[in-house]
């Protein structure tokens, strides 16, 4: 089985895994409530995990609170040094962890390795950041006064992650939070908890070697309920949640009700615009990878293709040539580009969306079958679908987390295409392919794309860690990873110091006593 047993062994994943870890200690192994995790690739049982109880959760919070007292006093560059070591450990385990990501989640090995590389990159980024947690200084309007701002550690950061980037999203949050002086509590997706167990084993060595207290990096294994408990917990000042808009609306409401901070990274409905001035050779590559890569299970997956009618037939033909040739199969098998969907529920959503869009008037051009036969026994492999549709169709307005690409025609100017692209409730990633400078700039202007990510001659899928990642509207508005995304993990304080012998008031206010 592709050496998975050995990989699990090296990563410390056992037959039965405990429900939580505080970095150094594991706990909750005796919980009666356990769950078996099966691979979507071949249906094999990989291992099982225990699920945290309310008491376990309480223990973890107490450990985290205790650790925060120490961690926030460690100088930021020293915290960066710990993150540097974590990055190095991840380099050592890259092959194994990448393989487990691929096996547990179903993305192809190259993408599993890519995901671990992203973790390593964010570690490097965070190390640099640990010396750059800058505030500004301002000129005071009062004589002999100094005014500046500083950023202090915030406290406990809850990280709720989705199945599709089962480890990278944790690292975006946890590594930044760590250099910022926060401690984190990670609730991985209940569909992919084993990679979280593995990651926790990897960082344990670093914590031990540096004699750090437990409670800096915590993991709790459980479903939505425990996530909801954390969202409601006033001891957790920031909850960073990645997943569906449905989930984000709930978490946002609960965190908002207690005036906590929520960082929401939710669903997308990403479009690529192909204008009459597009370089189709590069565009088709971007469309293909964007639409079928990770079997359509990226938040940045290309779901809509908005095509100028002058090139519509050409584009359609090129895609119709490519789609039937897609190598679909076991993600650890070299040469395959498309792996399985996460489970048969996801397959049902795929099939249902295709039925619904056809009922609305859409035309299925190719694909849409659930694959069967040798290698496809799990019922989780599907043939990516191409559908001619209209933007306003209910089905097109929704994010179906599966490989369906909707072809949408426009006939007027680029503004018409931009209106279509913006005409959905989500606002994550967007692209235009054009060699025309006016069209490209129109797309990037204030009147252009309304998404958090807007690309020119690059697809929607994937992003570099150096930029802030996230989206607008129902995507939730949060920003993670690069640029100044770190600021949400800290509390900002403005300080004014008077070193004069007077007490002048601001705005020239005078009073006598
Ligand atoms: P999901 O919403 O089903 O689950 C995500 C996480 O939220 C899980 O850990 C789950 O246990 C937890 N959760 C669910 N309900 C909750 C609640 N009421 N309170 C607290 N926690 C709760 O999503 P999924 O199927 O794992 O992931 C796919 C979705 O994630 C897609 O919509 C995709 O676009 C989105 N996603 C977004 C980004 C981004 O950065 N914008 C990245 C990856 C995935």
TrEMBL record:
Keyword Oxidoreductase: yes
Residues at the catalytic site: 265
Keywords: NAD, Oxidoreductase
InterPro entries, per database record: Ald_DH/histidinol_DH, Ald_DH_C, Ald_DH_CS_GLU, Ald_DH_N, Aldehyde_DH_dom, ALDH7A1-like
Enzyme Commission designation: 1.2.1.3
SUPFAM superfamilies: ALDH-like
Record's keyword annotation contains Oxidoreductase: yes
Residues in Aldehyde dehydrogenase domain copies: 33-494
Listed PANTHER family: ALPHA-AMINOADIPIC SEMIALDEHYDE DEHYDROGENASE
Similarity field: Belongs to the aldehyde dehydrogenase family.
Subunit details: Homotetramer.
Protein name listed in UniProt: aldehyde dehydrogenase (NAD(+))
Source organism per UniProt: Hymenobacter koreensis
